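input
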Amino acid sequence: MQKSKQSKNKIFLVGMMGTGKSTVGCLLASELKIGFIDSDEWIERSSSLSIPEIFRTKGESHFRMLEKEFITQSLPEERYVISCGGGLCIEQGMMEVLKQRGKVLCLWASPEKIASRTHSANNRPLLDSENPHQKITEILNKRREIYQSSDYVIETDELSASGVVSEIVNIL
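output
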C-alpha cells in the first residue's frame, strides 16, 4: 500500500555505476546510525532475479519500472541512506520524485575511473560491450545533465570511500 505522504528524510546517492554509491552508502549509514538500502539489491531480492537476468528476460524497461516502484511504493518511513542504481534518476520525473523525498547527492567519477572500478564486474548489463570505456563515456554524456541537477555533486576520483563520507557529512 502506498503511503499518502513520504517524509523528506532520505539521503539518495545517485550517479553512474562504479562511483561508489553502495560502498559509500553503507559507510554513511553507519556513520549517521541510520538504515541503508541498495536499490539494486532490493530489486534482486524482491524479484528473485539478478539484474542481468531481469535485463535479459524482461528488458531494461521492466527493470526501470521496478526501480520506480521501489522509490514510489516501497521506501520505509524512517530516515535511510539509499544507494540508487545508476539509471534510477534518469527516467522522466524521477529526479524530482527523489528530491521530494530527501536530499539527492550525486557521486561523480571520470570515465577512466569508472572503467577501472568496473572492469571485472560481470553484473553490469549496460557495459556488455566490446569497448566498455567508450560505452561508459556515452552513458555519462547522456546522463550528465540529470546527474548534475542533484542537490550536491561530489567528485570521487581522488577520494577514498571514507573521504566521500566525510564530504557528505560536511554537506549535511
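quick obs: Helices lie at 21-32, 39-47, 51-58, 60-73, 94-101, 111-118, 132-148, 161-171.
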